[in-house]
Known about the structure:
mainly alpha, 5 helices, 50% helix
Amino acid sequence: MADLFAQLPREVVEHILIFAHPCDVASLSRTCRHLYNVVHRPPDNYLWRELFLEYPFDDPRTPPLFLDKSDYNWAA
């Protein structure tokens, strides 16, 4: 199964993972090196930002916690 994910572009894998719970994404990242890199070493914060905003967490971009969203570590 991991080999199938390795053949897909990173953007497609990220789009699929957006529909999973963040805990499941973190667990999946432990199954192979490719998925670990997709989840924990992305070139941008797209996956974690989308996962974070999908669930009822507080949005850090709203006052008074507003930070420069380009510098915000969504995975943390």
